Amino acid sequence: MKGRALVGLALTALATCRAAPVDYAHNRWDYWSFRARTGALPEPNYLPWAMHREELPGGGEALVVCRWADDALPLRYFVESPVIPESLAGEWSARRPDDYVTAVDEAFALWQRAIGGQERFARAASAGEARVIIHLRADVEEVAQGQVLGVVSGEADRCSVKRAVSADQVEIAFAPHDATVFIADSLGLLTPRTVRAVALHEIGHVLGVSGQHSPLAGDVMYPVAGDRRIEALSDHDKNTLRALYSIAPGTLYARLGETTPPKLRDVRRDPPKLAGETLDPRHSFQVRFPKGWQAIKTPSGWIAVDGVSWDYDASIQVVASRGTVNSHLALLASKSRALGDDVRREEFELDGAPVVRLIARGSERGEQTDVIDWGEGWVLVVMADALIEDFEFYRPWFQRVLLSVQRADSRVTPKPKASR
To answer: Is the peptide bond before 44 cis (omega within 30 degrees of 0)?
Structure first.
């Protein structure tokens, strides 16, 4: 889940001179500084990647919150019904133009439920009454990198800074007016389900996610090629748009060239402290992660990181998986040895139950994996990793988390966490 996006764009020439290009790497320090100014945000998210890189009136560049203003909501949209040529329709196909229009409506509805709050979208009766038009086209769009299934017109220019309002606020113009979703590829018509997934991605851009996309595979806003689209909004997708629409448009996220991460490493050297229980009724376990770490639900369990999901120093993951202890260990050991890691196996007991541990040390990271027989063909895997120079510092945290793992009644439902 580690990810850092590097953006290197040249500054526009000024009247008398040209400034040197500024490279920027997303980092947790800028995110935490921004969060301290705006207040708590829904997490986990990839909000920094939703920011737009814009020139400022006084010179320099900044990452800026660009989204529809509150008075533009509910956003009125119109879906242009596709014309399906007979060569694509065929007698065998029961797909109708309305099926694809409905798919786009469903995509807007999914984003509405994800963002929550007031009504965000309203279907317009005609294109002339809409602020955004979604064009559905049945032709095939080929580019050098492969096939395109969706595009937002003028994506690079849809946000612009008008004037400075304060040190941390600018006035912006944001009005992406149309997007195109292709309903066919080289093999023929796509399913309405696939078109809904493509529409989800493009609508995310229309709502304000910049062309940087999400850095995390599995998110709807992750950049993918062809029709390999993610069909369901992830927690990262939902929280990012919730956060985006909780912040005033034009808010400065970070000024480029003025942001310097702390030079000291963020390795925790105090005695490890654990937070309250995290319950997973799906796999009948509960665990306590280190206090202050970000806990993230995954399809097979939970992961906690010392940092944020896209920039962290160490992680601890607890997952349930089908199989046996030995089969999992053999696979893990094989992968680590293929990377050239030094691999060591240990065995001990935890509350009378046998636990097998695999420690793999590579040139950059160290990893500790404990595998426990969870019964009925399941194993519980506790995986922890850190940079190799910090690995020994973090091992007390890893051990305390392992000791906190307990069986839980699968019928128990965890209390919902409050979020903004």
So the answer is: yes
Query: What sign for the dihedral angle of Cα 37, 42, 45, 51?
Result: negative
Q: Give the C-alpha separation, 320 to 238, whole Å.
A: 25
Phi, psi for 45 (deg, rounded to 5): -150, 170
Residues 6 or more apart whose Cβ sits within 8 Å of residue 415? none
Burial of residue 266 (CB within 10 Å: 0-12, 13-18, 19+) is: middle
Identify the residue whose tokens are 């007390």. 396
Across 281-377, where does the E strand assignment appear? Answer: 285-290, 294-298, 301-308, 311-322, 342-350, 353-361, 365-375
151-189 exposure pattern, b = at least 16 Cβ within 10 A, e = fewer: bbeeeeebbbbeeeeeebebebebebebbbbbbbbeeeb
Amino acid at 226: G
Q: How many residues does the chain have?
A: 420
Give 291-310 pLDDT, tens digit per residue: 999 999 998 999 999 999 99
- The beta strand positions in 138-264, using DSSP E, are 141-143, 146-148, 150-152, 159-166, 169-174, 178-182, 184-185, 188-189, 252-255
On the 0-12 / 13-18 / 19+ scale of CB atoms within 10 A, 10 is exposed
| Contact between 196 and 107 (Cβ < 8 Å) | yes
* Domain coordinates in residue numbering, the chain: 47-255, 274-407
Q: Are 96 and 142 in contact (CB under 8 A)?
A: no
According to DSSP, the residues that pair with 360 across neighbouring strands are 343, 367
CATH classification (class only), 274-407: alpha beta
pLDDT one-digit tens code per residue, 340-397:
999 999 999 887 888 999 999 999 999 999 999 998 999 999 999 999 999 999 999 9
Q: In this structure, what token pair is assigned to residue 318?
A: 């607890």
Arch. (CATH architecture) of 47-255: 3-Layer(aba) Sandwich (3.40)
Which of 287, 338, 298 minimizes the C-alpha distance to 321?
298
The residues pairing with 354 across neighbouring beta strands, listed in sequence order, are 349
pTM of structure: 0.84
How far, in Å, CA of 243 to CA of 50, rounded?
10
Cβ atoms of 261 and 273 closer than 8 Å: no
Q: How far apart are CA 34 and CA 251, in angstroms?
A: 10
Residue 272's closest CA among 284, 289, 295? Answer: 289
